[in-house]
């Protein structure tokens, strides 16, 4: 199969790749912010909300 047979993705003139959009917009579960998202362990809360609820979730501060 040659490159001409498939769909055209990206811009060949500038060498850019087509952007891959996510299937779902990621946002904070509490306040719906999209910036500063803590997604590790499937938490999906922003860093501000994480600081408020981290202890009740079982996280400990060591310093």
Shape: elongated
Alpha-carbon distance between the termini? 57 Å
Name the CATH homologous superfamily of one domain: Ribosomal Protein S14/S29
- The low-confidence parts are none
Q: Give the proportion of residues in helices.
A: 10-25%
The residue-averaged pLDDT reads 82
Largest sheet: 2 strands, antiparallel
What's the β-strand tally? 2
As for the CATH topology of one domain, it is 30s Ribosomal Protein S14, Chain N
State the CATH class of one domain. Answer: Few Secondary Structures
Based on CA atoms alone, the radius of gyration comes out at 20 Å
Q: Supply the number of helical segments.
A: 1
GO molecular function: rRNA binding; structural constituent of ribosome; zinc ion binding
Family: Belongs to the universal ribosomal protein uS14 family. Zinc-binding uS14 subfamily.
Cofactor: Zn(2+)
Function: Binds 16S rRNA, required for the assembly of 30S particles.
